[in-house]
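Let us work through a complete example step by step.
Step 1: write down the sequence.
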Amino acid sequence: MNSSRRRLLATALVTPMMPTSLRASDWSERTIRLVAGGVGGVTDVRSRWLATHLATAMGQPVVVENIAAAGGLVGAAQVARSTPDGTTLLCTHQGLATITPHLNARMPYDPLKDFAAVTRLGYGPLLLTVHPGVPATTVRELIALARQRPGALDFGSPGIGTPPHIASELFKRQAGIHAVHVPYNGGGALLVALIGGQITWSMDGPTAQLPHVQNGRLRPLAVTGRKRLPSLPDVPTMAEAGLPDYEYMGWTGIAAPAATPRPTIDRLHAKIVEVAESDEGRRWFESVGAEPGTQTPEAFDAFIRREHAKWGMLVREAGIRAE
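Step 2: predict the structure and record it as tokens.
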């Protein structure tokens, strides 16, 4: 066999081990698809902000694709099955990664094995709001109303096992009240129902609710964290409002398919952190009631695993079931 033939054979044997789609020189020029939940929800709002700024930072297009079906499970499963080349990412959150897996025996993905953590993106409290027509201007008044009318009040969420659902279940347990859970198909549908007076209250991220609070379409009663929001300084924490042991912090983050090459993860992480931790990024997160909260891939992965164990215990103790 001559030397040129040996070189051709060696090339044929080696090349398939590194598909074209995984080469950094290739993927860095392609469009990045960022999968988020329903239009108008927290993951959608944060994803669109990130996409705009990340496209500039990376020098390549970043587009948001909303897939709200099954509380975001369909979109997450699509990302898990996508080619691990850095062009398909998931804007994940507490529900998808750490709560829903304990509710669904037929999960279309394994949250601890099928994704590579990139970074947490957004960490902060939820906001308890009611429709202005609800005769309650404080948490104590809402609790009193629920006790006067057991089972007559209802609360909404973007789906069973989502952070707004679990936060409200925690509220019910600590307040000793009964109310009916109404799940919607995504954060946008939830907001429409709450603004329309179809449900009594919701606990959702300030990111999506603040514009409607500011224009008077929603009435804020409390913040679920230990500190008041700079954007809503007159709204008390749940502890200040009468439930001293209550605390719930929500988060979103960015994940890629599990086999995504580490250099690709590192580049994504570096650029996302650059955008989120910039002065502009910090101001934006503060304006929507959160902080960037970025973490290294290793720290974010460890954080997800702790949250998975923590909320799994609450789901079991509260007897929450998927319908």
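Step 3: interpret the result. The radius of gyration is 22 Å.
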